[in-house]
Each structure stands twice: as C-alpha cells, then as structure tokens.
Amino acid sequence: MSNLNNHFSGTRPPMWTLKTFIPFDFTKHGDGTLKGKTLVITGASRGIGFEIAKRAAKDVANIAILAKTITPHPKLEGTIYTAQKEIESLGGKCLAVQCDIRDENSVKDAI
C-alpha cells in the first residue's frame, strides 16, 4: 500500500483523498472513444456504475467490474454476473470481480 501513498494524502485508507487528477482527453488521443481502453469500475452491478460500464461496452472497451453482489437480492436487481453478461452482449470485454470497497482486505484481494 505504500505506493498508493504517493498518490493520496492522509494516514489511513478511510482518510485518503486524491491529491491530483488529470483527466484523459479523448478528443486529443485516438478516436474519441473508449475502444481498447481498460476501465475498472466499482459498484458496477447496478446503478450509475453499471450504466457507465454499459456505455463503455458500446465502445468495445475492456471493463473490470467490482461489486459485492454475487447472489440475487430479493428487492434489488442485478449481480456482477448478470452485469457481466449484459456488458459482453453490448460488445465489451468484461471481468467480474467480487469486491466490497468498504473492506480493505477485499480491495487487496481484488487487486
């Protein structure tokens, strides 16, 4: 984790804040799409993360989706496996990884 400390400030993971962020300008690099790019998206089994992954899939991106849901929830739709299937049906390559970002060990395992 010491390498991460070069990019984040704070003394322990719950206190980290990103020091710098340089957005990638797709209009200056390549064809303006995510084609061939690799994305890691957390919380991608449903909601905003899933929508971002689906949009990237349309550009034929490589997508690693990280989410904690591996079994169907009685009230909430979607698991990392159902998301993976839909993302791949849209043209993206997808790797589904179970990860609860609230748990440091889970994040280490996912990495």
Folded structure, characterized:
The mean pLDDT is 82. The chain has a three-stranded parallel beta sheet, covered by helices on one side. A two-stranded antiparallel sheet has the order 1-2. Helices cover 26% and strands 19% of the residues. It has one domain: NAD(P)-binding Rossmann-like Domain (Rossmann fold, 3-Layer(aba) Sandwich). Strand 4, helix 2 and strand 5 form a beta-alpha-beta unit. It is of the alpha/beta class.
Distance between the termini: 11 Å
Ranges where pLDDT stays below 50 over 5 or more residues in a row are: none
For the record, what is the CATH homologous superfamily label?
NAD(P)-binding Rossmann-like Domain
Portion in strands:
15-25%
Count of beta strands: 5
**Tally of individual domains:** 1
Overall pLDDT metric: 82
Fill in the CATH topology.
Answer: Rossmann fold
Going across the biggest sheet, name each strand in turn. 3-4-5
